[in-house]
Amino acid sequence: MAGIEDLGVGIGWRPEIDLTVERLPGVDFVEVVAENLHIGHLPESVALLLERGVPVLPHAVSLSLGGADEVDLHRVEHLGAVAEAVGAPMVSDHVCFVRAGGLDSGHLMPVPRTRDALDVLVANVKLAQANLPVPLALENVAALLEWPDGELSEGQFLAELVERTDCWLLVDVANLYANARNIGTDPERFLDEIPLERLAYVHVAGGEQHGDIYHDTHAHAVLPEVLEVLDELCSRVSPPGVLLERDDNYPSDAEIEAELAAIRAVVDKHRG
Amino acid sequence: MNENEVLAARERLAARQAELLNALLANGPAPAGFDEQRLAVERRALLSKRRGIVRMLGPAVADELGERFRPLFDAYAVEHPRRAGSRAREDAASFAEWCRAAGELSAKRKARWKFWQSN
């Protein structure tokens, strides 16, 4: 199967920066958080971007596909409905679990890299795919802790996930950097192990170092080290798209524009 | 992979994930094999994210509590881990209620009659 269409450079659309996203030059596509959208009541700004022909990709955060429970089809249905409402070519969520034992972590928790966890994830992803109108891409998360008995590396885990479900990958290079800092993942090995021909697009985000821990905050500037991971990725494959995520502590338009330009410079460097 | 195998894997995984979240969100015992320091880091990160969301959703409550907001929220949070299926707004409302019940917040003001309304 051919790769997905060329998306270019984009930014996560958020209500707090809707006008910024509309007026920034060089926004080729956007993502919206699927859970925050209501069918039939699309934000005016999202409707405007759609009118301009800017692709809008729904990104979900609550499917808990790596959770032990069977995936909640109401959540999948909502994600699919958002995809249809914005005419999206693809949707995404994460390789993580959010809920367990009746509790909600409020966050994207890493799954153990065991056969059990992979089998459950595969079953949930297949069920989600069967109920979605468009292809599903899955993203690597940032972990602050490591499950004790991993049987596979993160790259192997994702490679097998793709092989068994035919899903796409959304590679977050900031999460890759965070995992290198916090749990010793080797980004190069990760990139060697994943099937790059199934790369849907890439996420870039900012964060902050606190003592010996790097926090993937999406509320600080993008570190040069994160762009180096993007550079490493681009040296292996030309990504169909790269998207900047900023969720809080919003900077000036000029700063966002500069971050988008820095991302584009890395991508273009390898396109020659 | 047959369905029974997946079901068995789901059960084993459910126990492990529940044990981890119980340790991180509800002061449960640390699951075997995890680095205790990292569990503490993760616990703080999750708490801080939840606190930030509640502050954002209920700025008036946070303002009234001032410096007490953080310690009070942290005490509330471990007593009331978020239930699966609950919403962040419910969390913010339930924290405010908890503070009122503890006498930390003034009683909820009733909507006042507008002066132009006859009573």
TrEMBL record, chain A:
InterPro entries: MbnB/TglH/ChrH, Xyl_isomerase-like_sf. Gene3D superfamilies: Divalent-metal-dependent TIM barrel enzymes (3.20.20.150). Transmembrane segments: none annotated. Pfam families: MbnB_TglH_ChrH. It comes from the Bacteria. This is Uncharacterized protein.
UniProtKB/TrEMBL annotation, chain B:
InterPro entries: SCO6045-like_C (IPR058711). It comes from the Bacteria. Residues 14-101 form the SCO6045-like C-terminal domain. This is SCO6045-like C-terminal domain-containing protein.
